[in-house]
Design goal:
single chain, 505 residues, alpha/beta, Rossmann fold, Isoleucyl-tRNA Synthetase, Domain 1
Length: 505
């Protein structure tokens, strides 16, 4: 039986349309999920939308629509984005679904039965934008001297009756867990932030609201709805069967943005400890995606719809750029010029041109994959270089979520093929040494096939079209050593797969 692998994105908050940051997280998580499937694991990939909370209620009120109607509309945009960007989710969960309300109430009862919930009165600072509570010491001053959250969002003083979660009870258990599981929070910079926060002392957490009613109802507590983060985090277990059997839990990894690390690395494990449930194996917090080095905002006029970029440059070119250019776990920057430059250099000029030249030459002059011909040590050397890049270096990098480094390793294989073509010159060999030409072309076709398989998690559509043109049906890393497919394969004139991109005029 295949080893199970459960991966999630953060559950996106749909009070507005998806932006490039949502697309980046979805694409990166999808590449990891696809990679694990190609490694032979039984993958379950969950994404979706977190649709409750005061922010949704206020946005709906400002737009003059029912909150449910806003949730339906906005959630559909996130699903459409995922589908358009080839995000291969197994479940798109919505926190407004009935099974999720059941799961949220079940985990509430479990925490209550453990003595971790009590009724009290909350007085403190709350950010509607972050849906988060902050201590006075965490606040920063704005330009006009106003109090802001650590994220720079507005806060308001809130006073209301609330249920509290005894987070203070879990300070030491959390620290013990972090010590026993040093890779639970990655990258290291985020782990250090969480350790400092927890070591500094925890306060009990307000986990219900009475000032609005758009959320999961607290059973037996009239007028209370759950704090949005309680039910948002619970979606990760709803999606795999809670409160019933959960053979896929715990999650192997939650992929999240660095601004919500505290919720996933402090509150979520504490809730699970209280409910007597296993903790996820890892939380990985990626960085922000900046536009020309600047944070995106509507006021700055630099917010870009990811669908516009995908339509302009192609889904796979966008996917490749984001995963090759941005070191996963760090902030990264994008621009039209950067996307065009990277996609043209790597995909069009290097890999695409290699495949197009070789396949066109074979189709025109032979019409089939050539025989073994007359071998040379350079052939085996190239195939060893490509096998190392595709079968060792890229998988090793992707296994540790070093996605950019994996793409870089793949490019070393592409560069080796281009150097081999220049050195062997099969176009000249056609007249001087046809037998040697056949060996060179056969070697190149084997190498191109391996490169196409290796990069499938990043550019799935393009890689599969190239594999189809090669007549290669294999699609997994376990298939890389297999060479039997090549004999007798008929090659038709290929269609270009990586057209050169141009900047919009």
């Amino acid at each position: 039986m295949a080893e199970r692998f459960y991966i999630t994105t953060a559950i996106a908050y749909p009070n507005g349309r998806p932006h490039i940051g949502h697309a980046y997280e979805a694409i990166a998580t999808d590449a990891i999920a696809r990679f694990q499937r190609m490694r032979g694991r039984d993958v379950f990939f969950l994404t979706g939308t977190d649709e409750h909370g005061l922010k949704m209620a206020q946005t709906a009120r400002d737009r003059g629509v029912e909150t449910r109607a806003l949730a339906d509309e906005m959630s559909s945009y996130f699903r459409q984005m995922d589908d358009a960007l080839a995000v291969s989710y197994d479940r798109f969960i919505r926190t407004t679904e009935a099974d999720h309300h059941t799961a949220s109430q079940a985990i509430w009862r479990a925490m209550e039965a453990n003595g971790d919930l009590y009724l009290g009165r909350y007085e403190g600072w709350y950010s509607v934008r972050d849906e988060a509570f902050y201590d006075e010491a965490e606040l920063v001053a704005g330009e006009a001297g106003e109090k802001l959250s650590p994220q720079g969002t507005a806060v308001e003083w809130t006073v209301e009756e609330t249920w509290f979660f005894r987070l203070t009870r879990y300070q030491q258990p959390l620290l013990d867990f972090y010590a026993a599981n040093p890779d639970f929070i990655r990258p290291e910079s985020r782990r250090n932030e969480v350790l400092r926060f927890v070591e500094g002392g925890l306060s009990d957490l307000s986990v219900s609201r009475t000032s609005f009613d758009w959320g999961v109802k607290v059973a037996g507590a009239e007028g209370h709805v759950m704090y949005v983060w309680v039910d948002a985090l619970t979606s990760y277990i709803t999606g795999v069967g809670y409160p019933g059997e959960m053979p896929r839990w715990p999650a192997d990894i939650h992929i999240i943005g660095k601004d919500i690390t505290r919720f996933h690395a402090v509150y979520w494990p504490a809730f699970l400890m209280s409910a007597g449930l296993p903790l996820p194996r890892q939380v990985f917090a990626h960085g922000f995606l900046l536009h020309r080095g600047e944070k995106m905002s509507k006021s700055a006029g630099n917010v870009v719809d990811p669908m516009t970029l995908a339509e302009r440059y192609g889904v796979d070119a966008l996917r490749y750029f984001l995963l090759r250019e941005v070191v996963f776990g760090q902030d990264g920057s994008y621009s039209d010029e950067a996307i065009v430059t990277r996609a043209n250099a790597d995909l069009s000029n290097s890999f695409g041109n290699l495949a197009q030249r070789v396949l066109s030459f074979v189709a025109k002059n032979l019409g089939r994959v050539p025989g073994e011909g007359r071998a040379d040590p350079a052939d085996a050397e190239l195939l060893e270089t490509v096998a190392r890049a595709c079968g060792d270096e890229l998988p090793a990098a992707f296994e540790t979520l070093a996605l950019a480094q994996g793409c870089e390793a793949w490019m070393r294989g592409v560069f080796a093929c281009n150097q081999y073509v220049d050195a062997q010159a099969p176009w000249a060999l056609r007249k001087t040494d046809p037998e040697r030409m056949e060996a060179v072309l056969r070697t190149l076709i084997l190498a191109i096939r391996d490169l196409a398989i290796a990069i499938r998690p990043v550019i799935p559509g393009s890689a599969d079209r190239l594999l189809d043109q090669l007549g290669a049906t294999a699609r997994t890393y376990a298939d890389l050593p297999d060479r039997s497919w090549i004999d007798g394969a008929v090659l038709q004139p290929p269609s270009p797969i990586f057209p050169r991109l141009e900047l919009p005029s």
